[in-house]
Design a protein that fits this description.
- The chain is mainly alpha-helical.
- Among the domains are: 125 residues, de novo design (two linked rop proteins); 187 residues, no CATH class.
- 63% of the residues lie in helices and 6% in strands.
- It is built from 38 helices and eleven strands.
- Helix 2 runs antiparallel to helix 3.
- The two termini are 34 Å apart.
- The N terminus is likely disordered.
Length: 950
């Protein structure tokens, strides 16, 4: 379809199908995939795939029971080679549908802009308009951006199922699809169609799976691809947009230009620094991560400096330049007579030479264009930025301000945001590892023979005494365990990295499983042992790394405020916080709290922990920054970021927020530059709105909120009991889970450098929350995103029956949905999960459980809770259809089911074959690798189709 936006963008007719272009794109990509399938695999195979597709569509759209049996029969008689082809075909269709949907989002956004519609919800302009209406003035907004820190943090987790080669091919398809929005001549349209077919054929001939285990280095490279696609250009561009939007919104009120010279939106990463449960991460991976970060950003700077040299052909024969620019040009190694009157070019040749020297000094020497001559490396990114400012100032002083934008000002902004480190690398390790290392250091130094045996008060006393000592526990003349040497090596590497790449390269240390104050003090001692914590002549301490507790389980969340109150009262810690500008970060874990207590209770306990932390920090006079450890699934804190931030309790954002972007969500959000830009804007707009929106001042509203919270506490208790009873107290549930989901097969996939379980056991407690949620998504139950809600609501309403107030209680829940963003977001996220849940498909996975009694008993309980949950959600919201408030998403999910169903059916069939053979004597040695491959391909396809399952 050619020029679809231009035909409708400025004037849409009543009743027009706004999704028609999306349908057309999906049909086009599906037809091209069919053409490629026919060409590559033959007419017979194409006919098989097409028959399966049509039958699946008929079953979904017409609820044809006969079609279901027919589909099942067709899939069972496929040969192994046919099975692989069918799985690949439906998997790639899911990937192509994702591309089409992303393009449609861009199309719809452009249509709104072309029509001059009012700013859409989630834009900076919309947030500013709301704040202005609420009486927030321009200076307050500018102060916000001058103090804020908003940081998406990319992490690598074992649900990222796409290879970079696949992502590259899909990016090319997205670009070609976008090209069709422009007016094309017949020849151009034919060429575009040809290239689409070429790229889809490339995708078909590209291996979808990795046959070797993904390394940390691979994960680093995968993440860096998103910088090249999106972040390097879109982050600086967003800064420009924010300044323009503030000036536009407050036009006439304050004519002063807007310039925010602080990097409030920054990137973070865990990849290469997150050691928790990953033995493959160490000092070497940290050094490698920063070297690759530096290479990526310096490549960008070098390319942009070279391009600017071509752009800025300004001659002093035409216009003068400033003395500072002349001095910069005269210092350049380029003294060619041909460019004697072109100071900008000569200055940029000098800047390029200094960047090249910097790249070599930082071990990032990947320089394609040799510099003209030698120049000294930059001492830091600030010096590079200052040189660029000399060019900007000279242009603006000599009628060349227009020439500074966009490339020069964008490059300068990039230097301020990304430095020479690109992204701040967080360090993370589990508290029990720190305890073991300290125990050995104390014992070998003769300070205490058995540190772990001490109670908490004694540990804190010993640690504080050690932090007051001028000497170290570690001795280079004593042998230590490999673990201790490795952990100390990591801290030493952090010190070297900060010296080499700048202080922002590494500045945070996160402690998993924080349960006590001593867990925090232990990391301060380890910093002291490695030169990261130092004291001046007056005894004042300085710590290079902020120590950040991660509260994960339900009990940990309940203890969080008390731990922070106690630790922030310690004189040493108070001094360290004061040196950082009275700010302290706390990380909250969504995944483990959900696995521990279920969706409703996890969400509520996180909310309560945040409120309690706000009170503790306010009393201590410390600004709190929350780091939200969100995953892809709703069960792991996923769902729309904008709504999630706005639903935070008042006082928990305040311009300070970090949040993780994990697994395939990174690809979903940032593999397209325009989609990535929109997601970054949503994050900034939500933080702005949540931080500056006036608090509730109406006593009636406060009283209403108190009542809402009381009800939520009761619901949480009931949901917790229902969830715990099923997952942790029901005999045989663990066996059911390992049999009825592809968890074992997921653990074998080469989709992450981290093991799926912390220990080699079959205990739910030891299983990582990520594969736990991923497995439930694959079998289409998505249980962590809704289980317990129905029991909680029904039980609470039933108590109302006994008291004669059921209708009043239901009205209270309806009021909570209508007037409380926290509860409304909770219901909205659960609604999305339930829309993707399919009990009929899940029942096929249940058949994998050999014990019939166990299968029927557990599946019946899950089914009963599912139906209860649906009924209760409908009673509270009044919506009898899923996603009634988001029809585009509802149609998207429904349209995908017809293509997901065959993948799920085939996955079950292949798992049956594989497990049956494995149960036979010498079965593993006779296993067909095609079956193994087919299972993993189906996992990829289902994940792509559901999009947020990790």
């Amino acid at each position: 379809m050619i020029n679809s936006v231009n035909a409708t963008a400025t004037e849409e007719q009543p009743g027009e199908d706004k999704d028609a272009p999306l349908k057309e794109d999906i049909r086009l990509l599906g037809r091209l995939l069919g053409d490629v399938l026919r060409e590559q695999e033959g007419e017979e195979v194409f006919a098989v795939v097409e028959t399966i597709r049509q039958t699946a569509v008929r079953f979904r759209r017409e609820a044809d029971a006969g079609a279901a049996k027919e589909l099942d029969g067709m899939l069972k008689i496929l040969t192994r080679e046919q099975t692989i082809t069918v799985v690949r075909a439906f998997s790639y269709f899911s990937h192509l549908a994702n591309i089409a949907e992303d393009q449609h989002h861009i199309r719809r956004r452009r249509a709104h802009l072309l029509r001059g519609s009012k700013p859409q919800r989630g834009t900076i302009l919309d947030a500013l308009a709301k704040l202005k209406d609420a009486g927030v003035d321009k200076s307050t907004v500018e102060t916000f951006f001058g103090e804020a820190l908003i940081a998406p943090v990319l992490t690598a987790h074992p649900t990222e199922v796409q290879r970079k080669s696949t992502l590259d091919a899909e990016h090319a398809i997205a670009r070609l699809l976008a090209e069709r929005e422009q007016p094309l001549t017949p020849k151009e349209a034919a060429a575009n169609l040809h290239m689409l077919r070429v790229k889809i054929a490339t995708l078909w001939q590209t291996r979808m799976l990795r046959y070797t285990k993904l390394t940390v280095a691979d994960e680093i490279e995968n993440a860096l691809s998103y910088y090249r696609i999106t972040f390097l250009r879109e982050v600086p561009a967003l800064y420009d947009d924010v300044e323009e939007d503030i000036a536009r919104q407050y036009e006439g009120e304050d004519a002063a230009p807007v310039h925010i010279d602080r990097a409030y939106l920054q990137m973070g990463s865990w990849i290469g620094g997150d050691r928790d449960g990953n033995p493959n991460v160490n000092a070497d991976t940290m050094q490698h991560a920063l070297a690759r970060h530096a290479t990526t950003i310096l490549d960008f700077y070098l390319d942009e400096a070279h391009a600017l040299g071509a752009d800025l052909s300004v001659s002093t024969l035409m216009v003068p330049c400033t003395p500072a620019l002349k001095a910069l040009a005269d210092a350049s190694p380029d003294q060619s007579d041909h460019r004697a009157d072109e100071p900008y070019r000569r200055a940029l040749i000098g800047i390029y030479a200094r960047l090249a020297s910097t790249a070599r000094a930082l071990g990032a020497a990947n320089i394609l264009r040799k510099e003209v001559g030698h120049a000294e490396p930059y001492p830091d990114a600030a010096a590079f930025s200052q040189d660029l400012q000399v060019l900007v100032d000279s242009l603006e002083a000599n009628h060349g301000g227009l020439l500074a934008r966009p490339r020069l000002t964008t490059l300068k902004r990039a230097a301020e945001v990304f430095g020479f480190h690109l992204a701040s690398l967080d360090m993370r390790q589990s508290s029990d590892v720190h305890e073991r290392v300290l125990a050995e250091l104390f014992a070998r130094a003769g300070a205490h023979a058995d540190y772990p045996s001490l109670d908490e008060d004694a540990k804190v006393k010993l640690l504080l005494e050690e932090l007051a000592q001028p000497r170290l526990l570690y001795s280079p003349y004593i042998e230590y365990s490999d673990e201790t040497q490795s952990e100390l090596g990591v801290f030493r590497a952090a010190r070297e990295i900060r010296h080499r790449y700048g202080e922002r390269a590494i500045r945070n240390y996160i402690i998993s499983h924080t349960e006590t104050v001593s867990d925090l003090l232990e990391v301060l001692v380890l910093q002291q042992e490695t030169g990261l914590l130092r004291r001046d002549g007056e005894g004042n301490a300085t710590a290079d790394l902020m120590v950040i507790p991660l509260f994960e389980t339900i009990p940990d969340l309940q203890r969080a405020a008390g731990i922070m109150q106690e630790v922030m009262a310690l004189p040493l810690v108070k001094g360290l916080i004061e040196q950082r500008g009275q700010i302290q970060e706390v990380m909250l874990g969504y995944s483990d709290s959900n696995k521990d207590g279920g969706f409703l209770t996890s969400t509520w306990e996180l909310y309560k922990a945040e409120i309690a932390l706000v009170e503790v920090f306010a009393k201590a006079g410390v600004k709190m920054r929350l780091f939200h450890g969100r995953g892809g699934t709703v069960g792991r804190g996923g769902g729309p970021s904008y709504e999630a931030i706005l639903a935070q309790p008042k006082g928990t954002v305040n311009g300070q927020i970090r949040l993780t972007e994990q697994g395939e969500i990174i690809a979903s959000k940032f593999s397209n530059a325009e989609i990535g830009r929109r997601n970054l804007e949503l994050l900034v707009a939500a933080t702005l709105e949540a931080s500056l929106a006036p608090p509730l001042s109406n006593p009636e509203q406060k009283q209403q909120l108190d009542g809402f919270e009381t009800v939520m506490a009761e619901l949480s208790d009931r949901a917790y009991k229902a969830y715990r009873n099923l997952v942790y107290e029901t005999p045989g549930f663990t066996d059911y889970f390992f049999a009825a989901t592809p968890i074992a097969e997921i653990a074998e996939l080469n989709i992450g450098s981290r093991p799926a379980s912390r220990k080699s056991t079959k205990r739910i407690e030891d299983l990582r929350a990520i594969p736990w949620g991923f497995s439930w998504g694959q079998c289409r139950l998505l249980l962590p995103g809704w289980y317990g809600f129905g029991s909680a609501i029904n039980g609470w309403l039933a108590d109302g029956d006994r008291e004669g107030g059921r209708e009043a209680r239901l009205a209270q829940l309806q009021a909570m949905s209508a007037h409380w963003p926290f509860f409304a977001t909770l219901l909205s996220n659960m609604d999305m999960v339930l829309a993707k849940t399919d009990l009929a498909i899940a029942s096929r996975y249940a058949e994998l459980v050999a014990d019939k009694e166990l299968r029927e008993r557990i599946f019946k309980r899950i089914g009963d809770e599912y139906r209860q949950t649906l009924e209760c959600l409908e009673a509270v919201t009044g919506a009898t259809e899923r996603l009634a408030g988001n029809p585009l998403l509802a149609r998207s999910i429904q349209n995908r089911f017809a293509y997901l169903d065959p993948l799920n059916h085939l996955q079950v069939e292949l798992i049956k074959r594989r497990r049956a053979l494995a149960a036979e004597p010498d079965g593993e040695s006779r296993a067909d690798p095609r079956v193994h491959r087919g299972i993993h391909l189906s996992i990829n396809g289902v994940a792509a189709g559901l999009r947020n399952t990790g």
